[in-house]
Amino acid sequence: MADTNFAAIPPRERVLLLPHCLRPSATCPGRPSRQGFRCPPDCAERCPIKALREEALRLGYKGVCVAPGGALALRFVQETRPQAVVAIACAKELQEGEEAVAALGPSRPLVVVIPLSRDGCVDTEVNLDQALALLRTGTG
Q: Is the dihedral of CA 39, 23, 34, 101 positive or negative?
């Protein structure tokens, strides 16, 4: 969960990292790209990625990356240089990601995490209420 340091970081200095496995694999119209999974602007899916992305952008987050794995997510963090990262993923990816971010040295961002409530690499789940509450921490 978030601490007071996270609450003090404005949304414009935060990024959100999401795993592409949260999408409904059988019906998702999104497509992978070099920058991460891209959702079409007119997507009508009921999907946690859509809900979380929309809320993060509404709050003014610096960016959102829907990644198939840690390497792309780490590159996104290095390119955007946020002060804070909200990461949602399976326990293994979260641990590897936190270690990779720690290796960035003294200018590394603060990382707050939410583990998936059901993992398995396809059609995973997250506690959406908990994740949305974390995104909103310190915003009003």
A: positive
With a CB cutoff of 8 Å and minimum separation 6, the contacts of 51 are 128, 132
Instruction: Read off the pLDDT of each residue in 117-131 and give the average, rounded to a whole number.
Output: 91
Kindly state the DSSP code that residue 18 receives in the 8-state scheme.
E
Q: Which residues contact 99 (CB under 8 A, 6 or more apart)?
A: none
Fill in the amino acid letter for 94. Answer: L
Delineate the domains of the chain, giving CATH numbers in brackets. 4-136 (3.40.50)
* Single-letter code of the amino acid located at 37: F
Dump pLDDT digits (tens) for 28-42.
888 888 888 888 888
Q: Of 20, 21, 38, whose CA–CA distance to 29 is shortest? A: 38
Instruction: State the distance between the two ends of the chain, measured CA to CA, in whole angstroms.
Output: 17
pLDDT at 106: 86
Answer whether residue 1 shows pLDDT above 70: no
Q: What is the dihedral of CA 24, 27, 29, 30, to 10 degrees?
A: 20
Q: State the greatest distance between any 2 C-alpha atoms of the chain, in Å, as a whole number.
A: 42
